[in-house]
Amino acid sequence: MSINYKLVIDDLRVQLGDHPVTDDPVRRFAWSTDASYFRIVPEVVVHAETLEQVKQTLAVARKHNAPVTFRAAGTSLSGQAIGEGILLILGHDGFRKIEVSSDAKQITLGAAVIGSDANAVLAPLNRKIGPDPATIASAKIGGIVANNASGMCCGTAQNSYQTIASAKLLFVDGTELDTGCEKSKAEFAKTHGKLLDAIKELSLMTRHNAVLADRIRKKYSIKNTTGYGINSLLDFTDPFDIINHLMVGMEGTLAFINEITYHTVNEAKFKASAMAVFHNMEDAARAIPLINGESVAAAELLDWPSIKAVTGKPGMPDWLSELPALSAILLIESRADDAQTLEAYTQDVTQKLAGFDFIRPMEFSTNPAVCDKYWAMRKGLFPIVGGARPKGTSVIIEDVAFELEHLASAAHDITELFHKHGYPEGCIYGHALAGNFHFIITPTFSTQADIDRFHAFMDDIADMVINKYDGSMKAEHGTGRAVAPFVEKEWGQDAYTLMKSIKQVFDPQGILNPGVILNDDSNVHVKHIKPCPVVDDFVDKCIECGFCEKTCPTSALNFSPRQRIATLREIERLEQSGDKAAAAEMRAAAKYDVIDTCAACQLCTIACPVDNSMGQLVRKLRTPYITTTEQKVLDFQAKHFGAVNQVISSGFDMLGVIHKITGDGITNALMKTGRLISKEVPYWNPDFPKGGKLPKPSPAKAGQETVVYFPACGGRTFGPTPKDPDNRTLPEVVVTLLERAGYNVITPEKTRDLCCGQMWESKGDFKNADAKRQELIDAVSKMTDGGKLPVLVDALSCTYRTLTGNPKVQIIDLVEFMHDNLLDKLNISKKVNVALHLGCSARKMKLEPKMQAIANACSAQVLKPAGIDCCGYAGEKGLYKPEINASALRNIKKLIPVDIKEGYYANRMCEVGLTQHSGISYRHLAYLLEECTR
Predict the structure, then answer these.
(1) How far apart are CA 114 and CA 96, in angstroms?
(2) CB within 8 A of 468, min separation 6: which ones?
(3) What pTM does this model have?
(4) What is the pLDDT of residues 666-689, one digit of tens each?
(5) Which candidate, 215, 240, 579, 735, has a CA 20 to 30 Å from the CA of 546?
(6) Sign of the CA dihedral 178, 181, 187, 190?
């Protein structure tokens, strides 16, 4: 029966309202990919912030028999976070409960809590959650549980299956169950007795089938996430315990996970790492069973192609280039709660491996810098391979598992299949203690022949893993669509029939993520493959992993870089296919989401494992949209910037007077009228600052050091806001502070003429942007006495852009100068508590520690509001696209306690936005240091 999605969408909007529901073609397409190699465009996307919204969505789905796919972070690698029909995405604010028990032995987490955020709360208590997937800084708890994701250290002993205490679930019929609440279980037993009976019957049947029971036990003696967790039918007899554990690894096909309570695990205080370099994989694999025990927390194996891939890359050991061909590396880590035990562990490992002929001496180190360098090889492998792949290719990571005695021969067989099927770049690495190999290939999917080649490769992989070694086709990445055709082949008919029965018990309509885990289509893993057309060097390496989404200031507004890149790739695919009309239509429809609202803050580049730069690409894409008239305006502004800057500053003074006389209503109306004439007129904000002033340094004093101070545009254009307690402008405060510390201060003669060029670059006008930057560099360079004097810039983003012009003189951000040169020269009286913003420019310049140190020196308590990584003001864009700033800072007010009255950063425009949405004054750190040193 066909589904009338117009009726589905209408019903969803009746139940949920317009905002959470979208059927916009561009936005549907943008959400059609996850971190896998699949692409499936949903009919409608729902962003759910509450459990009630999920209930309402399921009610509509049941009514129309429409499929529903649940999505958390979308970091899944097997295609389980995308689907036809309704795509329900966890919203950006809901499902974020974090509650730690009094003894820290348990933690309750909402489905949308990011794994690393949970660990950040537990870290001071020397605890953590068990699962440790490589994606833990992006993956959300709902997905970690639903995929039974693990990682380098947790193995099978500390994964979600072993550490789950209870779960709050929502079933397809709208019924809630809390497996940790006796009252909830009693109510569920009354209304769903048949379901519980069916679970008990399946458990009993499994126990009585000796062959099947033995098969299950054997399969779970190694890592395995292929199919459902049917080991729960043997491990438990209570139906609620079985349900609890069936939810682990069910990939959204049985229920919606609302909350999870984990048993936390110990976070060892002492760690040591060693790098064992073997002559071949056989020796490395032979060493693994010997060290498997409590002395070793993690052991990661790298084959020869993996070593070659990282050799010569930044941060990698120089001696890698000297290793003979076919070498293999085993990275080993031991952990303990005291130094004596750690020493015993490392000695134990050393003794067990004493009989091996290592290429280099194996020595344990407890030095974090050394250990970090070791593990950078393992952690850097995937981004290095993904980033080095040819343009237009995809990157696929598969994971399989074998019994430890088969590791060496299995690695040999996989390598042979790489070459047989034309993937010579393939490399193998993995969690050796668990017998878990990951392998990476970078296939092209531009033709049917490419797809057929991949199909044949996967068939041979399955034959080798299943028939030769009786291993696991999926060890920790989840079954998804990628391995669904091989579930029955791996498990056998009885186990597969059992899995189908489980699906029928929980989802009789078959509407929860259909086609995932169980799929009768033997070719599903080679259908709906997403193409990877070449777009631009700035983003062509993108693997659509989603790591960028956590810090992107527009993720909640519309798109993250991942969605922007997916959209641009489709536009390019349409162009290449010859459908230029469709490409033009999509380009026009996507302009607001892809180009206009990108903050270009570059936080995505910092988070990106392959160094994409969506921000730089967006600036480049803005260039063609500059009209002739707009270019003339930009040219005029650049040529006469001193006058323009003075007019803007005076204009804000005048605007403040008008507002004081007429109030919000009339002022807002005037601004609206102005915007009809020019889009350069900003939206009204009651917290707009007054105009700024230039400083008046004191006459130079003999015997004092001199600094050149350049007051950047923001601080000299925008003065104090109505919420600021100090009526002085930033340049006035900076001069006062520097002179108090014993410096002579000189400023450029025509300061208002000068600019780093950021305001032009953000619009895509690179010619004027670079010319203004060079003009600034030339002007301040002449003042440095041949490079002897430092040049201080009082805005992080301006400093950053000026430095990209490769000046020959020393240009320092004011924050860094304050930290390095002023803190020790001044007597500081601490304030009680303040808020501190560590935004995108601070992160790009790696100045967060110094900013934190300044704040700590001046305040007894410093709060950094959680999750506020970029304010979204994006230079002057906050004046014209205030929705970006509003979305990025939508939660900041509730994150700041009422007793904190002031906040600090180091970029005036950002501070204006932070002030507006926090309700407290945000100013440059110079104000804080100046006040505390009076």
Answers:
(1) 9
(2) 413
(3) 0.94
(4) 877 877 887 777 777 788 788 888
(5) 579
(6) positive
